[in-house]
Write a structure and sequence with these properties.
single chain, 1276 residues, alpha+beta, Serine Threonine Protein Phosphatase 5, Tetratricopeptide repeat, 18-stranded antiparallel β-sheet
Length: 1276
């Protein structure tokens, strides 16, 4: 074999034995046989070197260097042998070879360090070893690091480095870890294993591991067996009295059977082991040991049980007696502990120091306990005496100093307490408890500015201890939390949250700081962020307190199931009374939910039973009792619900229970007992005044809650005044609210409502803007401005405001987004409103108010069936949530009632009297109509209706001897000779049927009927009317054929007494267009009509009419309105057919009619009554042309001598008066009556009606107004 391949093979062979840093320089692969030979030679050299046989090691290395003269590992080992043989010159030559051929090889660096330490730094290395052995660890480490600034050396020198490092407490773990790592890389390095085994046997925790390593080395042929056995034997002698090491003595004797001392020691250990086995089998001893273990773990109950068992047979065992004494000491039963320690001292005088120390401890802490108890019992003088006794024993005891300081503060000796606390804090190790007391003292005395300097002065000394540094962080966090609590009480959420977040950075595992911050987020409408805050706490510290705080938060955001699941993760043994109370609360909530479901399913008795179970489950929790009471009130059992809290308060007469009393006020409000609430709030105010400065006084948040209840009561009083249309009284209520509460936005918005009700839209807007001046982003105020803009006709402005509010509103701000959706719905932007509400419904499917708003959007858009379904679903959700109804029902109930009003079926009848003065038998008319009206609903959008109206007409007696007789029929042409006077009357029944459609934004009505069947002249009549809502405007078109009811002739027709011919029965065939538009608070309107009037033997006529005007509300309240305005009428007829001769129609038909009138009307309701009072005053100007007596019969006109009716100008002053009243005397029955008079020149009709209406379904809610008299078909 040539030399080159063998060298390459050797290089590859050495790679596995090199450190990892050298393996990248591996040569190409060569013959396996060469690799194996070189590896065997290198291993042999190392083995002989480890056995101190340098000669044999040299032989093996010479063979390697013959094959590969520059092999680095072989050169390194050879140089190390030369150094140990005190031949440094040879070693230096080998080092030069390595530097020349392998300058970056690890072997080169290792030899450089080894050579340096063996020559120039030999004395310094010896000093380091001496310092380490002498216990001067710090200096030894400093010098060692200076010797090896680039880190630990490699190889043999590295072993020495780690051996020295392990001799220091701080360096030992690092040294052992590094040696283990190196041994894992070089498992065949016996010298390395020997050093590690020696180190491991130095400590009890690693002794067994070290002995195992030494045992394995003793079995290896390449290791220094003698040294391994020496270390093994030396280790066993250190533990010669421990039976646990008997097995290692046995193994050692197998290796060194002639070691008599080891054999004798093993025999003694066996005897001890047997005695130990017998003792372990003793139940009393087992109980003693169990007691000691449980005591060490802090399980006092288990330790007590074990010690008491051991006492039965080992009553004289000092450890048992003393162990029981330790249990009593930790339980705080110091007198019993002292007695037990005294007895242990008698039983075991050899350990007198131990028992005397415990006796002194029990005596001292007994004194401390009595001092603390005296302080909590309100006996500060006694507490001071006992604390000073304790300090006499231990002058620097922090607990005694703190108790003494508390006692001094309780005696109003703050200056002494401050001096004492500052003296304690001036020491080298300040007590955190004393620091906390001093901070509290400064804060309570208004000296908060001194706190930060105090903490800064103390911080450096506390930082020396991790525990104290943590306490300091906790103290800073507590200070920040107290400041945050004050800010929250002042409703300054932003700076409060900033302090809470800073406190959480200092103490991220503080559960109650997290809880306070999470609630602050929740109160800002960010419950998800609050949940994230608590979830992060659970990840950081999943302990019982964190779970408790998280469960409380989840409960506060209405997620009791998640809260219960979290609480269930806390072991029963770790649960506090508060946790158990919360568990009862959650169980009660579960029962309440079941009750709501039972109620929603129509099982109210089951719901009441579950309610009572919930009350029983939470007797000790007054707040939950109040919640149960709230549910009872929603079920209609107000007395029971209020009684639950009343009974608790009666059972705890001495408890301030401010929170419970405030909850009771909420219950009174829910039960609608505002007068009782008024007295209750007055009592709470008295309690607040009397308790200020005392224990149990109102906290700022509670005082704010009291003010909030008073404000809400005032707002309800305001609403009641407005419901009664007493705006002035509402203003007086608001003015009586204290000035501080008038800063609340709700007060200003209530003022805006009152001013709006008064019609002062500008004043209402000004009130809303006062809110925005303080908070420009207040959504309620901005939406109020949007509503006012809409009321004022500025829809574009209103829409802009609503969109701006939505853009700045969080996705989970349900109330604001729903309010915006209501405004969009009112603005007829249903699609935008739906886009706002639908995401809320998906996120909160159980919210009834969201579903109600969906229903309103559907209703506004004309999807009435969908709206009904949504309202019913919302009602189910309200029942499941036990929503208490307000006046008029819950929101879903009111919405459904409003929708159901569209399906109002009814039967109505009336008696209608009217009289128009005139010439008897000619123009005079007395009419009686008895309409019968039936309306049958069809879905939510339409109804069919039917009329059967009995009509009686009486024009009086036509007397032939009257001069006016010639103005009737053909008498003027034919004469009245032989014609007797006759009564002029007729009767019949008008029949009609029709259908009316009423959609969201349009409606129409179609009808077909007859003039009264039985009349002399009968006609088919009917019409079609369509109305479209156009935002703030409306347009109508009416096409119809209607009877003209002005006179007997125009309505029923008549028979000419001179000829027997018939004429009359006029009908108008026409079309009318109408338009109205809201302008501000009022509206303008105009109608234009055109028609053709025809009748039997009546000249055809044409008319054109215009009516225009405006309405303006003078008073617009919930229960009454006063309106006025201006109305202009213009009529024009082609023919003047007002007369009663043959061919005339008997109806007023001027060629020009222009009138101007001012109406005034007052409508309102009160209780079951509604009314309408009105009238008008006007002026008119008219013109009528001359007309022949017989416009359709020239022959008759000629016979009459061509007589004519003279026309001319007319008009003048006119007025009308109207009074109507209606009364709902039963849920389905309504009765009413109305009177009306019209007065003008030549026209003075009177009308009266009494009517009765029956509704198919009971009518709910306030009575509608104005009254709606039954309308006969003739007036369509």
């Amino acid at each position: 074999m040539s030399r080159s391949p063998l060298i390459s093979a050797a290089a590859v062979l050495i790679v596995p034995a090199l450190p990892a840093t050298a393996q990248t320089a591996a040569a190409p692969a060569v013959a396996p046989s060469a690799n194996a030979e070189l590896a065997r030679l290198l291993s042999s050299a190392r083995m002989w070197e480890a056995k101190n046989r340098a000669d044999l090691a040299r032989n093996a290395l010479d063979k390697i260097l013959t094959i590969e003269p520059q092999q680095p590992d072989a050169l390194l080992l050879l140089a190390q042998i030369e150094l140990r043989s005190n031949r440094p010159a040879e070693a230096q030559r080998i080092l030069q070879r390595l530097r020349q051929h392998h300058p970056k090889h690890p072997a080169t660096r290792e030899l450089e360090d080894t050579y340096r330490i063996a020559t120039q730094d030999k004395r310094e290395m010896a000093t380091v070893r001496m310092l380490a052995r002498g216990g001067n660890e710090k200096e030894a480490l400093e010098r060692l690091h200076k010797l090896f600034p680039d880190g630990p050396p490699q190889g043999e020198l590295g072993i020495d480095y780690y051996r020295i490092l392990a001799g220091t407490d701080a360096g030992r773990p690092r040294a052992i870890a590094e040696l283990r790592r190196q041994l894992a890389q070089r498992p065949d390095d016996a010298r390395l294993a020997l050093v590690l085994g020696d180190l491991l046997t130095d400590r009890p925790a690693t002794r067994a591991e070290g002995l195992g390593l030494l045992y394995r080395l003793s079995q290896r042929t390449d290791a220094d067996r003698k040294t391994a056995l020496d270390i093994w034997r030396r280790t066993l002698y250190r533990v010669s009295d421990d039976p646990a090491y008997a097995v290692w003595f046995e193994r050692y004797l197998q290796e060194v059977p002639d070691d008599d001392i080891a054999r004798q020691t093993l025999a003694e250990l066996e005897a001890r082991r047997e005695a130990h086995r017998r003792m372990l089998a003793d139940p009393a001893y087992q109980a003693r040991q169990r007691g000691l273990r449980q005591l060490e773990r802090g399980n006092l109950a288990e330790a007590q049980a074990a010690f008491e068992q051991a006492m039965r047979t080992r009553g004289n065992d000092a450890e048992v007696v003393g162990g029981l004494g330790l249990v009593r000491l930790r339980e705080g039963r110091h007198d019993e502990a002292r007695a037990l320690f005294s007895r242990a001292l008698q039983l075991d005088p050899e350990q007198r120091n131990k028992w005397r120390s415990l006796l002194d401890t029990a005596t001292f802490w007994g004194t401390i306990a009595r001092a603390r108890l005296a302080g909590t019992q309100g006996k500060p003088g006694e507490a001071e005496t006992l604390a000073r006794q304790a300090l006499a024993r231990q002058p620097d005891n922090a607990d005694a100093l703190v108790i003494l300081a508390d006692a001094l503060v309780a005696q109003q000796r703050e200056a002494e307490a401050e001096t004492l606390l500052r003296q304690q804090l001036a020491g080298r190790m300040p007590d955190p408890g004393a620091l906390r007391r001093l901070v509290t003292l400064l804060q309570n005395n208004g000296r908060g500015a001194e706190i930060d300097p105090l903490l800064a002065a103390t911080e450096a000394r506390l930082q020396t201890s991790p525990a104290n540094a943590q306490t300091l962080r906790q103290l800073r966090a507590e200070l920040l939390t107290r400041q945050a609590d004050q800010l929250l009480a002042e409703r300054r959420a932003s700076p409060a949250i900033a302090r809470l977040e800073e406190a959480l950075r200092l103490t991220p595992d503080a559960p109650w700081t997290r809880y306070t911050l999470a609630r602050a987020y929740r109160d800002l409408g960010l419950p998800a962020l609050g949940r994230e805050t608590m979830d992060e706490g659970l990840r950081l510290a999943p302990n019982a307190d964190m779970r408790h705080a998280s469960a409380l938060y989840l409960n506060s955001v209405d997620d009791p199931d998640a809260a219960a699941a979290l609480l269930a993760q806390i072991p029963e043994a770790e649960r506090t009374e508060g946790m158990r109370e919360l568990g009862g609360n959650l169980h009660a909530q579960q029962l309440l939910r079941q009750g709501r479901l039972a109620l929603a399913a129509g099982r109210p008795d089951e719901a009441r039973a579950l309610l009572r179970q919930a009350a029983q489950a939470t007797q000790a929790d007054p707040q939950m009792l109040a919640t149960v009471g709230r549910e009872a009130i929603a079920l209609g059992e107000s007395d029971y619900g209020l009684g639950l809290v009343q009974q608790w308060l009666a059972a705890h007469p001495d408890a301030p229970a401010i929170g419970v009393r405030l909850r009771y006020g909420e219950l009174l409000a829910a039960a609608g007992r505002d007068e009782a609430l008024r007295a209750w709030l007055e009592d709470l105010r008295d309690r607040d005044m009397q308790s200020r400065g005392q224990r149990g006084a109102f906290e700022p948040a509670q005082r704010a809650a009291l003010g909030d209840q008073a404000l809400r009561l005032a707002l309800r009083d305001t609403d009641r005044r407005l419901d009664d249309d007493d705006a002035a009284g509402a203003l007086r209520v608001l003015a009586a609210v204290p000035a501080e509460q008038q800063q609340d936005p709700r007060w200003s918005l209530a003022l805006a409502d009152v001013r709006e009700r008064q019609g002062d839209l500008d004043g209402a807007a000004a009130a809303a803007r006062t809110v925005l001046a303080r908070n420009p982003d207040d959504a309620d105020a901005r939406l109020t401005l949007a509503r006012l803009a809409e009321r004022g006709g500025r829809n574009d402005e209103a829409l802009r405001i609503v969109r701006e509010v939505l853009a700045g509103t969080a996705e989970d701000d349900i109330d604001t987004r729903l309010s915006a959706a209501r405004r969009l719905t009112a603005l007829r932007r249903e699609s935008e409103a739906a886009a706002v509400v639908e995401p809320l419904r998906q996120r909160y499917p159980q919210r009834a108010d969201i579903v109600v708003q969906q229903g309103r959007i559907a209703q506004s858009g004309g999807r009435f069936d969908d709206a009904a379904s949504l309202y019913r679903r919302a009602r189910t959700l309200e029942q499941a949530d036990a929503t208490a109804p307000m006046a008029g029902g819950t929101a879903a109930q009111r919405a459904l009632q409003d929708l159901d009003a569209r399906r109002d079926g009814q039967v109505a009848t009336a008696t209608l009297f009217s009289r128009k003065s005139g010439d008897s038998g000619i123009s005079e008319l007395s009419a009686t109509e008895i309409p019968l009206y039936v309306r049958i609903p069809h879905g939510y959008t339409g109804h069919a209706f039917f009329h059967a109206d009995t009509v009686l007409l009486d024009a009086g007696t036509l007397r032939m001897d009257a001069s006016s007789a010639e103005e009737f029929g053909q008498i003027a042409a034919r004469g009245s000779a032989g014609i007797a006077s006759r009564g002029q009357s007729d009767k019949g029944v008008a029949l009609a049927a029709g259908y009316a459609y009423n959609g969201a934004y349009d409606s129409w009505r179609a009808d077909l009927g007859t003039t009264p069947l039985g009349f002399l002249q009968q006609s088919v009549v009917g019409g079609l009317r369509y109305r479209a809502e156009l935002n703030r405007a409306a347009a109508t078109i009416d096409v119809s054929r209607r009877a003209v009811t002005s006179s007997l002739i125009s309505y029923a027709g008549a028979i000419d007494p001179a000829s027997g011919e018939r004429w009359g029965g006029v009908v108008r065939n026409g079309v009318t267009l109408g338009y109205s538009h809201d302008v501000g608070r009022g509206s303008v309107f105009a109608t234009v009509g055109a028609g053709v009037l025809t009748g039997h033997n009546v000249r055809t006529n044409r008319e054109f009419t215009v009516r225009a005007g405006f309405d303006w509300p003078l008073l617009q309240a919930r229960h009454q309105r006063v309106t006025s305005g201006l109305v202009v009428n213009y009529w024009r007829h082609q023919q003047n057919l007002r007369y009663y001769t043959f061919g005339h129609g008997g109806y007023y038909s001027p060629q020009r009619y222009l009138s101007l009138s001012v109406p005034l009307e007052w409508t309102g309701r009160r209780g079951a009554w509604s009314w309408r009072l009105g009238g008008s005053a006007g002026w008119s100007d008219t013109y009528e042309k001359d007309m022949p007596f017989y416009p359709t019969r020239p022959d008759l006109q000629a016979l009459s001598g061509n007589r004519t009716f003279g026309g001319g100008n007319g008009g003048g002053f006119s007025y009308t008066a109207l009074a109507a009243v209606e009364y709902r005397f039963a849920p389905k029955w309504v009765a009413g009556m109305a009177l009306q008079i019209d007065r003008s020149r030549d026209y003075a009709p009177n009308r009266a009606i009494a009517y009765l209406r029956y509704h198919f379904e009971p009518q709910r809610g306030p009575v509608p107004f104005p009254p709606e008299p039954v309308r006969p078909y003739s007036s369509y």
